[in-house]
UniProtKB/TrEMBL annotation:
Domain Cytochrome c intervals: 235-327
Membrane-topology annotation of the record: Multi-pass membrane protein
Organism listed in the record: Microvirga lotononidis
Molecular function GO terms recorded: copper ion binding; cytochrome-c oxidase activity; heme binding; oxidoreductase activity
Protein name: Cytochrome aa3 subunit 2
Keyword NADP: no
Family under the similarity heading: Belongs to the cytochrome c oxidase subunit 2 family.
Phylogenetic classification of the source organism: Bacteria, Pseudomonadati, Pseudomonadota, Alphaproteobacteria, Hyphomicrobiales
Length: 327
């Protein structure tokens, strides 16, 4: 019947948000699982109390006076209005506090990553460990499965908020302050992180990729990222590199191993290895890169990078091909 179909539709709709790369209801690790249970218990508890109170309210309004008299007795008020809320809140408050405390304890053996929120992208630094040098990337967090990760966050301009719904809770990114969040991915996969604090016009377009790799694949990725940029070996790539130089891209962007050493924008040393560009906006390929360079202010008005609309199509292709070659 139409009624049944409507019921199925509503159920399907309410479950549609429960899985996927950006869902707190699809936990991929213990920290997210604890928050999932906290959400479930708080929601169920809140719903039950709401129904109870609404039921009593309707009863108080519509029941015959002699049957609702008990609602006004002192004992009902003491038990329902004082004892019950005190018992429920004394249980829920410590539970919530314990769950939240657990998410920011430093974990032994954790991978340390430093993330800075900037309008409207993410600067990601992998600090030195043993003999490995520090390197910086942008808009992606690559982590090993099964190993705790401790992210220290701050902001360069305004307040942002770091949130990977599948892996853990939110943490504010505040200029001049360092906050910390620990989590572990227990399932390899690709997740999506988002900015969870309104930070300006392009707040909604401030996302990043999280890729949880098997430890061996993570080590290989890390070793590759630590290397300087690849030298262009084809004439078309050399042309792209020369255009990159001539346009002054290196005054804002670093390409390690070249003279490009601007610290302002995202590090482009291995930009070709990233899944997406524009802080999670487009798949990373020559076409989207060329479009981005020419139209930043059209695609994400207000980002710090100006549109470079004066390049010809051929120049844009060479420039984008050079950047794509930086794997
Ligand atoms: Cu950054 Cu919202």
């Amino acid at each position: 019947t139409a009624m049944n179909r409507a019921a199925v539709f509503v159920c399907a709709l309410s479950l549609a948000g429960c899985s996927g790369v950006q869902s707190a209801l699809d936990p991929a690790g213990g920290d997210a699982l604890r928050i999932y249970w906290l959400t479930l218990i708080m929601t169920l508890g809140g719903t039950l109390i709401f129904l109870l109170v609404t039921g009593l309210l309707l009863y108080a309004i519509f029941a015959p006076p002699e049957r609702r008299a008990w609602l006004g007795r002192r004992r009902t008020i003491v038990v329902g209005g004082l004892a019950f809320p005190i018992v429920v809140l004394s249980g829920l408050l410590p539970y919530g506090l314990i769950v939240m405390r657990d998410t920011d304890v430093p974990m032994p053996g954790a991978l340390q990553v430093a993330v800075t929120g900037e309008q409207y992208w993410w600067r990601v630094k992998y600090p030195e460990e043993g003999a490995r040098p520090e390197f910086s990337t942008a808009n992606e967090l690559i982590i090993p499965v099964g190993q705790p990760v401790t992210v220290t966050v701050t902001a360069a301009d305004v307040i942002h908020s770091f949130w990977i719904p599948n892996l853990g809770g939110k943490i504010d990114m505040i200029p001049g302050r360092i906050n910390r969040l620990s989590f572990t991915a227990e399932r390899p996969g690709i997740y999506r992180g988002v900015c969870a604090e309104f930070c300006g016009d392009q707040h909604a377009r401030m996302a990043f990729d999280v890729v949880a790799l098997e430890p061996a694949a993570f080590d290989a990725w890390r070793a590759a990222q630590a290397k300087p940029a690849r030298e262009p070996d084809l004439p078309s790539l050399v042309r792209g590199r020369d255009l990159f130089r001539a346009a002054g891209c290196g005054s804002c962007h670093v390409v390690r191993g070249t003279e490009a050493d601007g610290a302002f924008g995202p590090d482009l040393t291995h930009v070709g290895s990233r899944r997406t560009i524009g802080a999670g906006q487009f798949p990373n390929n020559v076409g989207t890169l060329a479009g981005w360079i020419a139209n930043t202010q059209h695609i994400k008005p207000g980002v710090r990078m100006p549109s470079y609309g004066s390049f010809t199509g051929e120049e844009l292709r060479s420039l984008a091909a050079y950047l794509e070659s930086l794997k």
